[in-house]
């Protein structure tokens, strides 16, 4: 293409995309219907996974729940039915085990059908300094928080590509955008999850499969129990998030095909600043925001809720 025409096209479209984004600060985006669609949520036995199941259930979806916590899933399934799910099936599946993911995925395809919305939500945290963390826990963190996403995509993405229809949701973390003292393996796993979801999303666009959407979710601490004991230094700027509103925001992002969802909103500014500030100023800001001490009081979940 002619250099001047191509450059003009980019300038005009850039201008338009910015106006469009500005307009949508005030005018809500149109929500797509997911009624009748099959939604698979990993780690659905508690926390955000359970709440997202309830939110999707209320939209008239078919729910497929995966977890290693059978009792938790049973409770989620009951709640989802009460919220209006068309059908709920739950499966014990250890997402850290590739063969188990493939085996249970085949079972889901036989018993329920192709998955339309895949929510990779299962996650764990070691909560130890890198040097003190046992190798087995570090490996497990990478397997659950990152590698599991590879295997679920391998299992369910081909059908989405064939239909050019689907949605891939990655529940990552703000720790997938900014490193945190005391969370090295967790941050590595979440950076991996973000990079993986972002790259596959681009692969899909490059092959013209723009009907398969991606949503990457990066929340700060959520009050689910996973990070029990952790405190935030400036709660007004960086509040500990409420699980219900996080689940609602995630489902809203899926319905409006939003690619990145950072919570709270201040995370958009903080993650942008991280990439443009001089390093010393970034560290100063990190200390000011308490990022160096976030994990000092970490206890984690004391029992399965
Ligand atoms: N709680 C937070 O502060 C926070 C912040 C940012 C991101 N996140 C992420 O949100 C997601 C949900 O976290 P949550 O706060 O609801 O925690 P949670 O502990 O309540 O839920 C995690 C679920 O994953 C399941 N799980 C763990 N290992 C599994 C495995 N191998 N296979 C299948 N399921 C497994 C657990 O049984 C549990 O039901 C996680 O990916 C987490 O990393 C949480």
From TrEMBL:
Q: Which domain of life is it from?
A: Eukaryota
UniProt key word Oxidoreductase: yes
Q: Record's PANTHER family?
A: EPIDERMAL RETINAL DEHYDROGENASE 2-RELATED, PKSB
Record bears the keyword NAD = yes
Signal sequence coordinates: none
Q: Name one GO cellular component term.
A: lipid droplet
MF annotations from Gene Ontology: oxidoreductase activity, acting on the CH-OH group of donors, NAD or NADP as acceptor
**Gene3D superfamilies from the xrefs?**
NAD(P)-binding Rossmann-like Domain
UniProt lists the gene as sdr16c5a
Q: Which family does it belong to?
A: Belongs to the short-chain dehydrogenases/reductases (SDR) family.
Q: What is this protein called?
A: Short chain dehydrogenase/reductase family 16C, member 5a
Protein species of origin: Salarias fasciatus (Jewelled blenny)
Q: Which InterPro entries match?
A: NAD(P)-bd_dom_sf, Sc_DH/Rdtase_CS, SDR_fam
List UniProt keywords, sorted A-Z: NAD, Oxidoreductase
């Amino acid at each position: 293409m002619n250099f001047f025409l191509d450059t003009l096209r980019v300038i005009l479209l850039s201008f338009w995309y910015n106006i469009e984004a500005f307009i949508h600060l005030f005018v809500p985006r149109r929500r797509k219907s997911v009624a009748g669609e099959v939604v698979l949520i990993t780690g659905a036995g508690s926390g955000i996974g359970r709440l997202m199941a309830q939110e999707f259930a209320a939209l008239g979806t078919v729910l497929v729940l995966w977890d290693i916590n059978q009792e938790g899933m049973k409770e989620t399934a009951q709640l989802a039915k009460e919220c209006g799910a068309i059908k709920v099936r739950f499966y014990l599946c250890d997402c850290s085990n590739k063969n188990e993911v493939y085996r249970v995925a085949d079972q889901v395809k036989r018993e329920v059908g192709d998955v339309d919305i895949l929510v990779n939500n299962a996650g764990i945290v070691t909560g130890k300094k890198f040097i003190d963390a046992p190798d087995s826990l570090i490996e497990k963190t990478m397997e659950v928080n990152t590698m599991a996403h590879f295997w679920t995509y391998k299992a369910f993405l081909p059908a989405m590509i064939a239909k050019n229809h689907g949605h891939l949701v990655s529940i990552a973390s703000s720790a997938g955008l900014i490193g945190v003292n005391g969370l090295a393996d967790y941050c590595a796993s979440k950076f991996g999850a973000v990079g993986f979801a972002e790259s596959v999303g681009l692969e899909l666009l490059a092959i013209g499969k723009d009907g398969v959407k991606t949503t990457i979710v990066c929340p700060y601490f959520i009050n689910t129990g996973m990070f029990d004991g952790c405190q935030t230094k400036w709660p007004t700027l960086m509040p500990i998030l409420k699980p219900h509103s996080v689940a609602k925001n995630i489902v809203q992002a899926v319905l409006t095909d939003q690619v990145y969802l950072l919570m709270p909103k201040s995370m958009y500014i903080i993650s942008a600043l991280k990439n443009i500030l001089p390093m010393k100023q970034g560290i100063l800001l990190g200390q000011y925001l308490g990022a160096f001490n976030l994990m000092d009081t970490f206890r984690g979940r004391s029992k399965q809720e």
